[in-house]
Structures are given as C-alpha cells and as structure tokens.
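Q: What does the assembled structure look like for these inputs?
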Amino acid sequence: MNWGFFLLAQEVLLAVCLLGAWLMIGAYAVLTLAGYIYSRECGSGPRREDLPKEWPGVSILVPAHNEEIVMAGTIESLFHLDYPRERVEIIVVDDSSTDRTRRVIEHLMATDRRLKLVAVPPGVGGRGKSHALNVALRYASHDLIAVYDADNSPEPPVLRYLVAELLSDPKLAATVGKVRTLNKATNFLTRCINIEFASFQWMVQAGRWRTMGLASLPGTNYVIRREALEKAGGWDPGAIADDAELTVRLSQEGYHIKFVPYAVTWEPEPQNWSVWVRQRLRWARGGTYVVRKYFSRLPRVRRRNLALEVLHLLTIYHFFFVVLILSDLLFILGLIGGLAVGGTASPLMILWALALALFLLELAVALAIEGENTPLNLLVAGAMYFTYCQVWVYVCAKAHYLDMVKQEDLRWEKTVRVPRPAEEHGP
Amino acid sequence: MIFERDLIESVIFLAAALAGGGLLLHLAVRWRYAAVVGRARRIAARLRDPATTLVAVDEQASAIEELAQLPDVNAAVTAARELLGSKDAAVRSAGIEILRRSRSLDRWAHDLRRGGYRAKLRAIEALGEVGDERAVEELIEALGDDDPDVARQASYAVLERDRDYASDRLADALSSPDRRIAETAAATLVHMGEEAVEALVSQLASLSPQARRLAVESLGAIGLSDLGEVLLPLLEVDPDGEVRASAARAIAHMGGDDVVTHLRRVAVSDPDWFVRARAFSLLGEVNAPGASEVLMEGLAEVQSYIASCVMDDEDVEPVLEGSQRIRSAIIAGLRMLGLTDEEITAAEREAAGAQFDSDVVPEGEQTAEAVSENIRALSDRDAVRRAEAARGLAEAGRSAVAVLARALRDPDPLVRGEAARSLGRLGVRDCLEALAKCLADPDANVRLAASTAMRAIVTRDAARELTD
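A:
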C-alpha cells in the first residue's frame, strides 16, 4: 500500500477543509462587522415625525392550517398594529383546517370589520403555504401586501416601519423585518434557535444588506408590492420554502429587498427536537429545490443579486454542510493524536480551534447587537457547534438523501405549533 | 540610589500636591455650589412666603429675576421644582416662570421627543411636576411614543396635577391623527374612571368618528349603568358604523332588561352589515333571555338569502363581508350560548327546510325533509354518498340549484358529474354559467355531463319558447 499517497491525500483533504471553513467564517466575519455598522446606523428606528403622514392601504395575509392554539393571539396582535384602521385589511385563509381554527376566526370577525376570512374547503386546500397565499391574494384589495405566519405577535409599529421604508425607495420590491423568539428561555433548543435567529439576522440579513444591498424574504413579517409579486408570478405552489423561492424570482426581475431591523415580530419556535428536525428538513429541501431550479441558469444570469441569492442558498445547504462534515472529521482526527496525518495534527487543530473561536466571536457580536449577550447565552453559543450544528448536518444529509437518492416528492409539512408562553420577554 | 530615592520622593510629593490641590479645588466648587443652592433656597422660601405672594408683587418679580440670574442653572431648577410642589397657584407659576427662563422646559420637551429612554423618563417626571398647558401638551404627544413604557409613564404624568384639565386635554386627544396618541389617551381616561365621564360624553358630539368611537368604547369600559341613556341614541343617529358597533358593545356590556331588545333592533335594521353582525355576536355574549330566539331568527333569514345566491368562485368560500359575515357572527353567537356544532347544523338545516317549503317544489316530488337530508349528505366524507345526494337533489326543484352549483366544485369527479346531470335535469338557465366552468374540468366524465346538461337546458328553453 502506498502510505505516502494516502498521507498526502489526507493532508490535502484537511487543507481543503480548513480553507473552506476559513473562507466561510471569514466571509461571515465581514458580514458580522457590516451588520454591526448597520445596527449603529439604524438605531432604534425612525422618529415619528420623520414618517409619512399619509399611509397607503395594506392587505395583511395570514395563511392558517390547524392553528387553533395560536390564531387568536396573532389576530389580536394584528388588530393592535399602529396603522390607520381604515387602511388595513386582515385576510386569514383557513386552509382546510380540521381543528377549531375557523371557529376562532369567526368569533374574532364579529369584533373587527377589518378581519376577513377566506375558507378553503377540505379536499381543495392543505397544499401548503404558497397555495394559501395565492388564494388570499385574489381577495386582497390593496397594493401593498404584508405576510404574517399564524403564530406571530408583531410589535405595534412594525407595519409603519416596513411601509415607510418601502415607500422611501421605488426600487424596493419588499421590506423585511426581524423575527425574534418568543419562547427563547424555555429550554436549550429554543435558546439555540434564539441565538441562530439573532446571528442570521445580523450577519446574513443586515450584513448582506449593508455590503451588497440584498436581503432574503423570511416566511413572515414582510411587506411586498403587489405589482412586484404579480410580475414575479406570485408564490410558487411547488416550493416548500416559499420565501427563498420568491426571493430568487424577485431578484431575477431586478427587484431589491431591504432588511429593516427595528420592525420586530415575535414567534414561538419548536420546543422539541423532532419538530425542529421536521421544520428544518422542510427548509433544507425547500432551499435545495431553489438551488436545483436556478443553479443551471447561473452562467446565463445577468442579475448580480440573483446569482448572490442562489450562491447564498448553495452556501447554507451544500457548502456549509460539507465544511461541517470535514470539520468534524478533522476534529476527530486531531483528537486521536494525528493517527494518520503524519504529525501535522497539532497545527491543524490549532487552526481548527481558531476557526471555532472566530465563529463563536461572530455569534457573540450578533448577540451583543441584539442585547442578548448574557453569560448563559454565550455558554449556549459555545455548546452550539457540538450539538445544534451537528443536528443540522443530519438534517442536510437527510434532505440530500430524500432529494437525490430516494427522489421523494416535495410535500408541505406543517410545523407543530406551541402555545404562546404567558410570561416571556415578548412584546 | 539616592537619586532614585529623591525621584521617588519627588513623585510622591508631586502626587500628594496634586491630590491636595484637587481636593481643595473640589471643596471650593462644592462650597460655592452649596452657597448658590442655599441662596436659591432662600429666594424660593421668600417666594413661598404668603406675605410675598399676596402683598409684594414687585418683590416676587425681583425674586424670580434673582433666581433666573443665579450662576448655576441646576440650583435654580432645583429651587423652581420645589416651588412646583406648592398648593399656591402663584408660587407654582413663579416656579414655572423660572423654568421657562432657564430654558429647562425646552430642554425637557426636546428630551421627550428625541432623547434616550432615561432622558425621556426624566423629562416626563419634570413635565408632570410642571403640569401647565405646554407641559401637558408635550406629555400628550409622548402618549404616541413607540416605547409603551414611555407612553404609559407619560399618561400617568398627565394626571399628576390638575385632573379636570388633564381629562379635557386627553378627551381632545381622542381625535388625534396619530392613532397611538388617541388610543393611549382613551386608555388613560378609562384609568381615571368616573372623573373622565364628563369629558368623554362631550366627545360624543365630536366631528371625528375616531373620537366618538374611542369615547364610546371608553365609556363602555368605565361601565356606569346610567350611561345607557347617553349611548342608546347613538345606535340610531350616529352616521359612522364603527361608532354604532361600539355603542352596541358598550350597551351589551352594561346589561339591563332591555339589552336584547336594543341589540335585536340593531341586528335587524342597521344599514351596515358589520353593525348587524356585531349585534348578533353580542347577543351571544350577553346570554340574556330571548337572545337565542333572535339568533335563530337571524340564522333562518340569512341562510335563505345565502342559499338563493349561486357562488361564482371556483374552490373557496370567501367570508369577506355582507350576509356571509352576518351568518358567521350568528353562528359565533350561538356557540357562545352553548349550542353544539350539531345543534347549529340542525338549525341551519331547519332554516334550509323552511326555505324549500316556501318554494315551488314539483308535485309528487321530494319532501322538505328529504331535501334537507340530501343537502346534509352533500358534506358527507364518503364521495359515493355525496354523489347519491347530488343525484337525489334533481328531484328537489329550483331551490336545489345553489347547493348543486356548489357541488360542481366537489373534490371528487363522481360528485361533480352527478351535480352537473342533476342541474341539467332541473333545467334552470341560471346555472348555465356554473356548468360552463365545468367544461374545463380535468375529468372527462364531468366535462361530458356538463355539456349534456347545458344542451338539455338550452333545448328545453327553446322548446318552451316555441310552445309559448
């Protein structure tokens, strides 16, 4: 056996892994810095006197499928949005619910004229969020469309902030707000999700907006121009990550999306791992669907934002996945004392540890911007690489297996809701 | 070594000299400040003296001038804020005058609009102590602050001085174009309770519908039973539907013997569908004797109206406004009265049956009970049962058109096909449009059934015209 070749191959593999990890973490370090600068520029939002005096009409769409435990709280939050009453309509799509969702909506409809119900009967609905949103769009009467998930609690000024930013630049197709975790103190998983959301929003959303002028649509808390939405062809019913797919199509049409960090909504996140895995599996499969759909078109793409958006998804669901696996491999090899790496384990381990330290520093900065840099959160962030990130590897692996090996059809899987916590640090 | 010791000693001496000098300077500054504060307090005490305020106006003016000219603004402001605690209006106005001259009011107003959280709270506290017209105006502006804590503190501060004046100003704020200001003002007035009633009642005549609505809601939340006399006329005369709906809610919450009568009148006769829907749902909430009968009546009426309309949407049931909303409110009301879904369905079926009784059903054909049974079966889980029901409704007469048209959108092609055939047998021209849509059905049998039915209707109509 040619051991020399074997050792060389190992070293090349490790070098590639480190290069990949450092490239990615380095890029995110730049984005974190940009996110920090953007947070300083934005402050806590515009002054009231700087906002427009005349407000356009907004149709708020809320797709709902078996949401009885969270529906009332969401609708109440939407009733209390600080926006002229007569300029808002709230359209809730009861997407073939089999629980008491419709009953809850009907009860609240009698208290506020702005709430409207579009009921999709059994057998016709239940085909996912995109389908429900497309149905709701047919009944929307305004030119600005806001989307909220059925478990959200937006803060009162959110709509004003998003609309004001959207009106400030005609090139913008949409403005997106920030999503915070309502049940962040419930357990280790929700703490991890809270840290992940804070990092995602300050690194990926704020950082990319500040450096490249682009952001992604989240599934909730955004306002979009109807004209842009219709030009892009509405939501793709085949996509199970409707937000990522629509972001790419808007980029294809040459539109921009702006991140508005002081427009905040709160939502309860999964509290157990099995629900989390199912939710992330849907996201991962939705993301890879978008990559598959647009990757082959990249060489012909003239829009910079479209290419960057597809590359972003490629990074999360493919590149990051591979780097994590290689990083794990490197860590294990390092631990067993350079068994097969010919004495190069030690410096490589140092490089690996430095990469991890930079990753943790980025998380710490994002938490500090968010005002969440408590000792406990920093401790959880330290543990996230070895726990949360590793389950993410499993999720990505399963998504790729289902897509490439099993070739299973994409199917909308609803996230099991948890009730709103009574006494959390919410709005 | 000696040099080093000398150096160390020199450094120690220098440090001690600096520290001593600094201490002396500090003490001098403190002494001077204490002297200024003492002087300010003496002037303030002179101003508080009743002899000064009542007799020597000139002396008061000179004292104010003296305070305003003090070399330390903070000392003057501290003394002025002490004067604000006086019950004597003249002393308080002297304090305000000093604050105005020292530009403290401007600074606090600025902090309240643009300062950070702590600066805002400090400004609120100070302006609350001042409590004059301008301070209250600034505080009312702060009711619209995006930070709910700041808005809440501002609302407490408004009430700190003259509550009558504050309630009037807060009531005026109900018509503010800034919704947050108006709503926080309303919440503050509710917090005041009975003291705010007079100011709120005066707003019922406001030109602003928002002010009238918030005044009605606030009065309802205060909940004095004798307010019914003030609110009842609004049900009839207010031109704004939202105000009438709020008045209905306030009246419902106040209760009383006639509450069902009042709500029934609104539910039956209001020109705005939302107000009618609101009244029906409130009938469920009040749960008073007679409420369920009114709801049942309403259900029968609205059900027959809805059944007579053929829906033209493909696959959804939009409940956006109008009779669908009223129906949904009635059902919500019946649920609040404790009726189960089965009981409500039975009531709806009864209403549908009543409608068929009144329609022209061909002689010797289905009875109302059979028609109701078929309509109910159309929502069965079993597609075969639904298809049989659709076939059976061909014998039901023109009244079955609406439900059969809806069955054309059934997820099962078997049911859609039977519905199309039944519509063809019924031969009603109204359903041609619904049948035409089935010509694009993905199922070939449904397309065939629809085209056959359409041909049958057209042929029958033509034959009838020839016969006539």
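The longest strand of chain B covers residues 317-319.
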